[in-house]
Automatic annotation (TrEMBL):
Positions of the Protein kinase domain: 193-500
UniProt GO molecular function: ATP binding; protein serine/threonine kinase activity
Pfam families in alphabetical order: FHA, Pkinase
Name this protein carries in UniProt: Uncharacterized protein
Main location: membrane
PANTHER family: MITOGEN-ACTIVATED PROTEIN KINASE KINASE KINASE 20-RELATED, SERINE_THREONINE-PROTEIN KINASE NEKL-3
Gene3D superfamilies reported in the protein's UniProt record: 2.60.200.20, Nucleotide cyclase, Phosphorylase Kinase, domain 1, Transferase(Phosphotransferase) domain 1
Native source species: candidate division KSB3 bacterium
Keywords assigned: ATP-binding, Kinase, Nucleotide-binding, Transferase
């Protein structure tokens, strides 16, 4: 399948562009536009963007002055009151293009052709067609918040069915809180490997901890989502690209040992890292790193990146012939892809997922026109990652890794605008698209780093600021490479050399860096945890902050957001002591975007079935959907505890990461079957806590994991019998937003059982 864009009228007449892979196409007066018309006054600087993933093609007007005409209908535009013709409804700025559509901006006219169509398609009216390709999730999801979707699915799951079964037969025996989980349950079977547990879940799949059956070497196994293993041609291309990545051998690059496909599941076998990623590391510390401590991690990362930028690799082309190439570009550098391995003395940085982003796009496994399926993280993108999508080179990686360093040293992203964009999208109940990122990136250059961290030496700041420079460069691969090489640094090797010189000039010698590395490594379990600065907190944990709008409202008797879909509670003017359980799915919005609402509805059905059939169900007084899960009210704490432990021991879905909180307190039961009071909102705050919220260092165990845990208050603990209490460990005191007194908490998680 191919998409062809032909210019049939205007000063650029005769040009045409054919796309057989995902790409982006900028039209405007800017120098880096694919079609640049600097002398056309009707055309805006960045006029419209095409997002192409054959056969899908979407046009988005980028806030142009005059708008963009598609089949005679105007999309976008700031000065359209005097313009004749039809306007897209509700100020729409984007439209999915079909075969035969025409695009008009001033004197320029373009024709869209979808080549190699399998069959004729019925064309929808402009402005009303589905903006997602066939087979993607229902568009209704774009107009519903995760909480609304979750509430609806839970209500549907709660509708009476199987009424003929006696209640006693519906319940399942809850597992004992101290018995072991069945090994390998719901885990995929991969020949030659034994899977032990889930490490993490990402947008493309799940990462498991496993061992090689023969060598007993620990490994990380990344299993991709099933929909990515459908087309044989895609799989062939994917394996060819991954074979290139497998050739990278460096101590600062996570080694790819193996990959394959079994039972329609694609998987990679990677070096196992005993530690965490940089994103988790920074969140646990709760503050930016001092330069001397950050320096070793920065140089480690650049060592691995510099090696890759000059690595000699072989690529299999037509008829099995091998071609030699020099250098691989990562394309997706971010804190989550910088893994920190702890060898007992020091932290060592290793870059992961090298080449996997390119492999997926080359193989056609992604759709860049679909919200939620954008590979990479735009907070770390340079301008050319959108404008010169095909021509990314080592200088692109230089910007992205410098953006990661910027966050390490300041606790902030390099640009303004992303927080406001994500908040706006949340209010509009939609997922940010490439065109949204384009406007933020083009309109907000990197903030000079000393504005965010004045203590940085000038020599170091100068190097980092240069690495983050951007400019409009012509849409030509050679000219772009040369321009960026002069503007910032041509590759990671040059960047590292400049940074080392800056360290020396600032008095940060090799010996001082080594001493700081040892100090950082020894501080593994006792990192200082003052509150996160506002920008980092907002960007990293804005979802948790939405659970309760305002504590004053809570004290006044306002209800928490959500939908009650089951209640046996009787309204009473008096308060009643109850057990409160909050269950939350980690990063629900991202999870929902990645798996789609059909798969999600099955997940929610399993969740409700667990609650309904559990032996504690007779003690449930109320169940209410929340922003990312549910609130359950029980008449007894042992019943609430038993249900929570069942979710920890036996997750409803292998790819679901959950957090739970248990609390005992007085609440008010309303006439309509709801529950309110300060203790309700306290338990929501407790469910969302992370290590940076800790206000003392009484906890001497490993850091509390971000997910797959139960956190419990002292009043709740006192309601349990001694055997149940014994499985919890004291976790210290934590600050709860909106509450003046710190809250002592106890934790149960998979590592502590």
């Amino acid at each position: 399948m191919r998409v062809k864009i032909s210019i049939v009228a205007g000063s650029a007449r005769g040009q045409y562009f054919v796309f057989d892979k995902p790409d982006r196409f900028l039209f405007g007066r800017a120098l880096d536009a694919r079609v640049s018309l600097p002398n056309d006054p009707y055309v805006s600087r960045q006029h419209f963007l095409l997002e192409i993933s054959p056969p899908a093609c979407k046009l988005t007007d980028l806030g142009s002055k005059n708008g963009t005409l598609v089949n005679g209908i105007r999309y976008g535009g700031r000065n359209v009151s005097a313009e004749r013709g039809r306007h897209a409804p509700d100020a729409l700025r984007d439209v999915v293009l079909n075969d035969g559509d025409t695009i008009v901006v001033g004197d320029t006219q373009m024709k869209v052709q979808i080549l190699d169509l399998p069959a004729p398609q019925t064309k929808d009216e402009p402005g009303t067609s589905d903006p997602l390709p066939e087979g993607s999730r229902d568009q209704k999801q774009e107009h519903s918040s995760p909480m609304e979707i979750l509430g609806k699915l839970l209500r549907d799951a709660a509708k009476p069915h199987e009424a003929s079964k006696p209640k006693q037969q519906e319940r399942l025996q809850a597992p004992s809180p101290v018995s072991s989980r069945k090994s390998g349950r719901d885990f995929p079977t991969i020949d030659g490997y034994e899977i032990e547990r889930i490490i993490d879940r990402g947008g493309m799949g799940i990462v498991y901890k496993g061992v090689n059956s023969k060598t007993r070497r620990p490994v990380a196994i990344k299993v991709m989502l099933p929909q990515m293993a459908t087309n044989p041609d895609n799989i062939y291309t994917f394996k060819r690209e991954i074979d290139v990545t497998r050739q990278l051998q460096h101590p600062n690059i996570v080694q790819l040992y193996d990959h394959g496909k079994t039972r329609n599941v694609l998987y990679f076998v990677l070096e196992y890292i005993c530690g965490m990623n940089l994103h988790q590391f920074l969140e646990q510390r709760g503050r930016p790193l001092p330069l001397d401590e950050a320096a070793s991690l920065m140089l480690d990362s650049l060592d691995g990146l510099a090696y890759a930028h000059y690595a000699a690799v072989q690529v299999k082309i037509a008829k099995g012939k091998l071609e030699n190439y020099i250098g691989i570009v990562h394309r997706d550098l971010k804190p989550q892809n910088v893994l920190l391995d702890h060898n007992g003395r020091i932290w060592q940085a290793k870059i992961s997922d090298f080449g996997i982003s390119k492999s997926f796009e080359s193989a056609g496994f992604t759709n860049i026109t679909k919200p939620g399926e954008v590979l990479g993280t735009p907070m770390y993108w340079p301008r050319e990652q959108i404008t010169h999508y095909k021509y990314l080179n080592p200088a692109t990686d230089v910007f992205s890794i410098a953006a990661v360093f910027y966050e390490m040293l300041t606790g902030r992203w390099v640009r303004e605008g992303f927080e406001a964009l994500f908040e706006r999208c949340k209010k509009q109940r939609r997922v940010a698209a490439i065109s949204d990122y384009m406007q933020i990136i083009v309109g907000n250059p990197a903030i000079p780093i000393r504005q965010c961290n004045p203590s940085l030496p000038g020599s170091v700041a100068k190097v980092l600021d240069r690495a983050l420079l951007e400019a409009e460069v012509p849409y030509d691969e050679r000219k772009m490479r040369n321009a960026l090489a002069q503007l910032r640094y041509p590759d990671a090797k040059a960047f590292k050399h400049a940074l080392q010189q800056a360290f020396e000039e600032s008095g940060l010698s090799t010996e001082r860096i080594h001493e700081a590395r040892l100090r950082l490594g020894a501080d593994r379990q006792s990192s200082p945890r003052p509150p996160l600065n506002a920008s980092m907190k907002k960007s990293k944990r804005s979802g948790n902050a939405q659970k309760v709008k305002n504590l004053q409202e809570n004290l006044a008797g306002k209800k928490a957001e959500g939908t009650v879909f089951f209640s046996s509670a009787q309204g009473s003017p008096n308060s009643k002591e109850v057990a409160l359980l909050v269950y939350g799915i980690e990063e629900l919005s991202d999870y929902l975007c990645n798996i789609g609402d059909t798969y999600f509805s099955k997940t929610i059905s399993r969740l409700y079935k667990r609650v309904r059939q559990h032996k504690s169900s007779s003690d449930v007084m109320l169940i209410k959907s929340t922003t990312d899960g549910f609130l359950a009210v029980f008449s007894s704490m042992p019943s609430a505890f038993s249900l929570a432990v069942s979710f920890l021991r036996d997750p409803i879905q292998a790819d679901v990461q959950n957090r739970m909180a248990l609390h005992w307190g007085a609440v008010k039961l309303t006439e309509d079957g709801d529950v309110l009071g300060v203790e309700v909102h306290r338990v929501f705050r407790i469910e969302a806590i992370q290590m940076p919220d800790q206000v003392n260092s009484d906890y001497d165990g490993l850091p509390i994991p971000a997910t797959n845990r139960i956190v419990m208050t002292e009043p709740a603990l006192k309601q349990l019998q001694k055997p149940q209490r014994s499985v919890f460990h004291y976790a210290g005191q934590y600050a709860l937003k909106g509450f003046s007194e710190p809250c002592p908490l106890w934790v149960l998680h998979k590592r502590s059982r």
